[in-house]
Automatic annotation (TrEMBL):
Organism the protein comes from: Streptomyces olivaceus
Pfam family, one: adh_short_C2
Entry keyword set: Oxidoreductase
Protein's UniProt name: SDR family oxidoreductase
Family annotation (InterPro entries): NAD(P)-bd_dom_sf, SDR_fam
Family, as annotated: Belongs to the short-chain dehydrogenases/reductases (SDR) family.
Length: 237
């Protein structure tokens, strides 16, 4: 029987990359997509890398065709591609708003739609959702659209024994913060306010994704697993 196969969008850096490396180390066949100019640099050589823009349906088609050619079927689809445009409502222009929904919502929806024929019975889909509240209304709206989608898909795909879940990272130290101009000192300062006393690492989220994709999570679907070091627990009843 061939090793399990995983397709990870947004898999060339941060959480996606950490998940690709973890699954690869555990014997998975892995393909990642990324939109950067150096997508896939320094990943293990037998991880397949496809340059693809999550906003582009032709790029999604090409990535899924490559997964079909390489693997035939998929055991995990990790829909991790996403962007954040933090800021108050007055600061968000139409282009930024469109990016948030085209990548976080439209891109994930159509990647799943096009990859669905490859998903075996017993396979798993995981969305990266993450925190939206507190970093801007537009981000909250885009991220908030995903959780109802996860629950709806979990019901729709249950007869095919395809499980659909989400991970919601809290404060995770990834290159995305650097792109937003956030310093290492600021991340460490924020981390001190997390109940567990630190910012998370991409590997923390990768472990959660690997769990959801495993047989150990075979009776879990339609759920959102927060990987946040306890951030937000104080706000819950």
């Amino acid at each position: 029987m061939p090793a399990p196969a995983a397709l990870i969008t947004g898999g060339t850096s941060g959480i996606g990359r950490a998940t690709a490396e973890l699954l690869h180390s555990r014997g998975h066949r892995v393909m990642v997509t990324g939109s950067g100019g150096h997508a896939g640099a320094e990943l293990p050589g037998d991880i397949v890398t496809v340059r693809a823009d999550a906003r582009s349906l032709p790029d999604i088609d090409r990535a899924v065709d490559e997964a079909r050619s390489r693997f035939g079927t998929l055991d995990l689809l990790f829909l991790n591609a996403g962007v954040s445009r933090p800021g108050p409502v007055e600061s968000i222009d139409e282009a930024a708003f469109d990016d948030l929904f085209d990548i976080n919502v439209k891109g994930n929806f159509f990647t799943l739609q096009k990859a669905l024929p490859l998903l075996r019975e017993g396979s798993c889909v995981v969305f990266t959702v993450g925190a939206g509240e507190g970093i801007g209304a537009a981000v909250t709206a885009a991220k908030g659209a995903l959780l109802p989608l996860v629950r709806s898909l979990a019901l729709e795909l249950a007869p095919r024994r395809i499980r659909v879940n989400a991970v919601s990272p809290g404060l995770i130290d990834t290159p995305a913060y650097g792109k937003l101009g956030v310093s290492r000192e600021m991340i460490e300062s924020w981390g001190a306010d997390v109940p567990l006393g630190r910012a998370g690492a991409a590997a923390d989220v990768a472990e959660a994704v690997a769990f959801l994709a495993s047989d150990a999570a075979g009776y879990i679907t339609g759920e959102n697993l927060a990987v946040s070091g306890g951030l937000g627990v104080h706000a819950r009843p």
